[in-house]
């Protein structure tokens, strides 16, 4: 199954979502999500232990917190995709990612545990998107009061983690 790139009317182009989608070089969101499992796993497993809790500036997240944030966001975005594919008419609520990270205390969790959560969630996300028909992928719903399709959310998920890996490589290593 192929999930092609969304058009600009399928998501909020005024948000970082556009850059997330543009970060993905694959031709298929499912392919990108599958490839990213190894990329993310290798990156975090190769991260020196002294960098796990490093912050490049006051108030910035540690790499462990970034990974936890990636997992949280994927859970939320996959849920939104399912709701939109199922023709939900309500606007799905937004969320404050900074509050989520602060409330979770990822730095007290092991990298291994968060990576296991990431891989389990990714497998579930891929299976979810594979279950959608092209019609379901194209269905327009509202997420945080913005028109969005499940197709766009697949690409946002794939690009979101790449965005954060690029920042980690640039500012943390």
What features would you describe in this structure?
The chain has a two-stranded antiparallel ribbon. It is globular and about 45 Å long. The chain has one domain (26-171): Four Helix Bundle (Hemerythrin (Met), subunit A) (Up-down Bundle), CATH 1.20.120.450. The longest helix has 23 residues, at 63-85. The protein has helices at 17-23, 29-46, 63-85, 97-104, 111-131, 134-138, 150-171; strands at residues 140-143, 146-149. The protein is mainly alpha-helical and 173 residues long. A hairpin with a 2-residue loop joins strand 1 and strand 2 (146-149). The protein is 60% helix and 5% strand.
> Gyration radius, to the nearest Å?
16 Å
- Rounded to the nearest angstrom, the distance between the terminal CA atoms is 37 Å
Strand order of the largest sheet: 1-2
| Helix content percent band | 55-70%
- Proportion of strand residues: under 5%
What name does CATH use for the topology?
Answer: Four Helix Bundle (Hemerythrin (Met), subunit A)
- What is the strand tally? 2
Largest sheet, strands/sense/barrel: 2 strands, antiparallel
The 3D shape can be described as globular
Decide which structural class fits the backbone.
mainly alpha
Poorly predicted regions: none
Number of DSSP helices? 7
CATH architecture: Up-down Bundle
Q: How would you state the average pLDDT, rounded? A: 97
Query: Could you spell the SSE succession in H and E letters?
Result: HHHHHHEEH
């Amino acid at each position: 199954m192929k999930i092609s790139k969304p058009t600009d009317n399928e998501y909020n182009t005024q948000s970082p979502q556009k850059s997330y989608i543009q970060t993905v070089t694959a031709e298929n969101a499912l392919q990108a999500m599958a490839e990213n499992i190894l990329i993310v796993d290798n990156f975090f497993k190769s991260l020196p232990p002294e960098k796990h809790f490093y912050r490049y500036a006051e108030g910035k997240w540690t790499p462990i917190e970034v990974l936890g944030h990636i997992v949280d966001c994927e859970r939320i975005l996959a849920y939104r995709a399912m709701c939109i594919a199922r023709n939900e008419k309500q606007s799905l609520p937004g969320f404050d990612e900074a509050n989520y990270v602060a409330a979770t205390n990822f730095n007290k969790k092991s990298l291994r545990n968060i990576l296991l959560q990431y891989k389990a969630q990714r497998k579930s996300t891929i299976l979810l998107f594979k279950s959608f028909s092209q019609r379901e992928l194209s269905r327009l719903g509202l997420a945080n009061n913005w028109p969005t399709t499940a197709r766009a959310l697949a690409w946002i998920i794939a690009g979101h983690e790449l965005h954060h890996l690029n920042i980690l490589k640039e500012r943390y290593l």
